[in-house]
Amino acid sequence: MASTLTDAVLKPAAPTLTDAGRFLASRLRQIGIFVALLVIVTLFQLLTAGKLLQPDNVSNIIVQNSYILLLAIGMVMIIVAGHIDLSVGSVAAFVGAMSGIMIQDWNLPWWLAFTASLVIGGLVGAWQGFWVAYMGIPAFIVTLAGMLVFRGLTQITLENRRITGFPAEYRQLGGGFLFPGLFPADTNILDWTTVGLGLLAAGLLIGSQLRGRATRAKLKLDDEPMAWFATKLAFGAVVILGLTYLLASSRSGTPIVLVVLGLLVVTYSAVMGNSVFGRHIYARGGNLQAAQLSGVNTKKIDFYLFVNMGVLAALAGLIFTGRLNSAGPGAGNLFELDAIAAAFIGGAAVTGGVGTVIGAITGGLIMGVLNNGMSLLGVGSDYQQFIKGMVLLLAVGFDVFNKRRASSALK
Amino acid sequence: MTEHILEMRGISKTFPGVKALSDVNLAVSRGEVHAICGENGAGKSTLMKVLSGVYPHGTYEGDIRFDGEAVSFKDIKDSEHSGIVIIHQELALSPYLSVAENIFLGNERSSRGFIDWNETNVEAAKLLKRVGLTLNPVVRAGDIGVGKQQLVEIAKALSKNVKLLILDEPTAALNDEDSAHLLGLVKGLRDEGVTSIIISHKLNEIRAIADSVTILRDGRTIETLSLHDGSVTEDRIIKGMVGRELKNRYPERKPSIGAEILRVEDWTVHHPQEHSRVIVDRANLSVRAGEIVGVAGLMGAGRTELAMSIFGRSYGSNISGKLYKDGKEISVRTVSEAIRHGIAYATEDRKRYGLNLLDDIKRNISGAALGKLARRGWVDSGREAVVAGGYRTSMNIKAPSVTSVTGKLSGGNQQKVVLSKWMFADPDVLILDEPTRGIDVGAKYEIYTIINSLAAQGKAVVVISSELPELLGICDRIYTLAEGSITAEVPIGEATPELLMQHMTKEKD
């Protein structure tokens, strides 16, 4: 009897979609964000008559947005845990300023200044994490205070000057390229370093996915349909190889910051998906009390999340400063809002518990492509702000609508 | 023939992929208390949502006649206007507003847009008196107990000139005393001419106050029985609900009891904020391997507080007393220490404290013992899915896959996920707090079977429950708790509901 009951509930009474259609619909939330990025890229590619995807412009988009994407990684982790960080722009500016002081005033070598800057970022994060985790002050308040405090400290440190003239090594991180002399750009051939890296990345992606699928098959676990898996994999490979081709034919090859970013995305995706720490972040954000009653040390999680965010903000500060070759009092203004917007466009939930690194990166790219495309079209910054605001609202609105439809379908 | 205040005919409601109601008929006579019974998922709540306009006219098939007229409600306001008020299982009071403000929320006593506070409070006091509450209407709703909040909800319904009151599981969160009061009130309202529909899992309550009962199963009306002549027994109702006669509501078990595993001595716990208030007072208890020990107590007796304070001090302050595990004293200051010492606690409120409803089944199951699946901080997701798949089969968790989100499961299946989580942690002592709350009869039996098999594996099981028949049905020994003190320890052979109740209501000297 019990089984007839479940059958009645689980069996669709009136199938309205084909199986494949229903499967795609169920994945819509997962892939919606990638589709959106694709649509926006296509749209601007058409509107700008092909300027958007010109090799040098693609390289430019990556470098221009690298620090926001970097911040978005840390931000989505914080948001998944149910917090927010409003201070990252100020922290990035503060660390940039400190690195300037260390290099120009104290004459430290660039590598020591780098290391010290990351440590400073970690300490700043520890400070904020302490208030959030152990004093129980809401992160919104702590980091709102941090936003003011570290903006102030930036200005105090710089005594209202602007530090420029950073050494070439320092500037590599934000503005450098991999082995630029190896394959001179004036000849009209591909940059083979980039091609090699791209092939390696695509190979690793396919290899790891196939291995994962093989393991799941060996363990006799349910898996997604082969067609879907293959499509996803092919799509990923095409994107990587397409990007490789574009960068390889650009003037300077692979930006160093892209390699850094790529490594961080892979590492942090793995941390969020497969490490105990990452699982505990989702558990903490999904249901704080349930996590605590499962023995998760949620205070420690909160603390280290902010330490991590501090280090990433420091790295963003170094990249930004290096790219502009300048550390100024107004640097990093509104970075936090771009990073937060990226995380939410990428599907993170305001209440915590939901969100992915890849989503946040895609969200950040959507914003980046919008910015770049509109600039290419000569749209004024007034309209750009307006459009970006609407995109954020619509993206989250679409997500909420989708969720509601999914839950009402199940009563 | 009695006049029907409500007739629902041929109601069908389809959700994408699921037929929730098919051709349901319901006829309620004027001035009666009409119960609706059915397992979880039988369609009770859906039917009430159709009736109250949550699902507006046009989204379902069939006709509704209320008070002699065909009606087609567009929304809840519409149905309330006709005199149908529904009180949901989850109370909908705003905790920061006063009782009076809550009663007149959306229906404010005002003139020209300004609230008349005197009239609001005077009228509220009158309504509160009608539901038997002597309460200052200006206190905040969040500051009164759940039982009183439920009565405030009814007062709110009365303020709307209710003709048909629908109560969805009104006593699920109430203790026996508050339940009795509430049920008495429903009877009183009947005598004043208010018809009630009551949805409940508690069959003894239905038998006590309802005039008739309609049984739903799998989205269909099975039968409507009159309860007047007393010939309809609880077992008869259960038979209708599950489609079979449940001869034994509790599975057979031959206990084999071993050595003592956990002993608690002189356990005293204070309130987490008011440090001088004693919540648990010098409690002593022990549980042996293979034994199922019950803890009986009325709401507020300190049952959950006792359990949670033992479980890594997750409740309370100034905790004193000693814990012995396998005869040796242990120190347990955090939940993770408790888990390490082999103690597990499955909460009474699985949605708030037990599950991450946003996450899937497998990640919830692995949640309390992720370390067992991890090496150097990295989780083996493949093995995790295998483990979870094993529990899905052995615990009979009804879900398409272990990647299904727990928030979409029924109460019984959610409870099985919580139990799986703790079974995977492989504790020696399991404290189960209200393990069958809000679960239908069929699933309850499954949960009891699981509890028995845990005991048969040599685990020490403590079951906290407010349902005495349940404790009498599954335990080997029962402690009674009253006002934070353990008032008696009763072997199952001597235990009767009357005796337990006596000890549970003992006053402190």
Can you walk me through this structure?
The complex is a heterodimer of chains A (411) and B (509). Chain A has 411 residues and is mainly α. Chain A has a domain at 67-176 and 276-402. Chain A is built from 16 helices and two strands. Chain A has a two-stranded antiparallel ribbon with strand order 1-2. The longest helix of chain A is centred in the N-terminal third of the chain and has 29 residues, at 19-47. Chain A is globular. The model of chain A is unreliable at 1-17 (pLDDT under 50). Chain B is α/β, with parallel strands linked by helices and 509 residues long. Chain B folds into three domains: 4-242, P-loop containing nucleotide triphosphate hydrolases (Rossmann fold, 3-Layer(aba) Sandwich), CATH 3.40.50.300; 248-342 and 427-509, Rossmann fold (3-Layer(aba) Sandwich), CATH 3.40.50.300; 355-421, no CATH class. Helices cover 32% and strands 28% of the residues of chain B. In chain B, the strands form six sheets. Chain B has a six-stranded mixed beta sheet with strand order 6-9-10-3-11-12, with helices on both faces. A six-stranded mixed beta sheet of chain B has the order 18-21-22-15-23-24, sandwiched between helices. In chain B, strands 2-1-4-5 form a four-stranded antiparallel beta sheet, covered by helices on one side. Chain B is globular. In chain B, 50% of the residues are buried. The model of chain B has no long low-confidence stretch (mean pLDDT 87). The interface between A and B is large, with 47 and 58 residues.
Task: Provide a quick synopsis of the model.
With 411 residues, chain A is an all-alpha fold. Chain A is built from 16 helices and two strands.
List the helices and strands and how they pair.
The complex is a heterodimer of chains A (411) and B (509).
Chain A: H1 2-10, H2 19-47, H3 55-80, H4 88-105, H5 110-134, H6 139-158, E1 163-164, H7 168-175, H8 192-218, H9 226-248, H10 256-274, H11 276-286, H12 288-292, H13 298-324, E2 326-327, H14 335-345, H15 357-376, H16 381-409
Antiparallel strand pairs in A: 1-2
Helix pairs in contact in A: 2-15, 3-9, 3-10, 3-11, 3-13, 3-14, 3-15, 4-5, 4-6, 4-13, 5-6, 5-13, 7-13, 8-9, 10-11, 14-15, 14-16
Chain B: E1 4-15, E2 18-29, E3 33-37, H1 44-52, E4 61-66, E5 69-71, H2 76-81, E6 84-87, H3 99-103, E7 110-111, E8 114-115, H4 117-130, H5 146-159, E9 164-168, H6 176-191, E10 195-199, H7 203-209, E11 212-217, E12 220-226, H8 234-242, E13 260-270, E14 278-288, E15 292-297, H9 303-310, E16 317-325, E17 328-330, H10 335-340, E18 343-346, H11 350-354, H12 361-365, E19 374-375, E20 378-379, H13 381-394, H14 411-424, E21 429-433, H15 441-456, E22 460-465, H16 468-474, E23 477-482, E24 485-491, H17 497-504
Parallel strand pairs in B: 3-10, 3-11, 6-9, 9-10, 15-22, 15-23, 18-21, 21-22
Antiparallel strand pairs in B: 1-2, 1-4, 4-5, 7-8, 11-12, 13-14, 13-16, 16-17, 19-20, 23-24
Helix pairs in contact in B: 4-5, 14-15
Protein name (chain A): Xylose transport system permease protein XylH
Membrane topology (chain A): Multi-pass membrane protein
Keywords (chain A): Cell inner membrane, Cell membrane, Membrane, Sugar transport, Transmembrane, Transmembrane helix, Transport
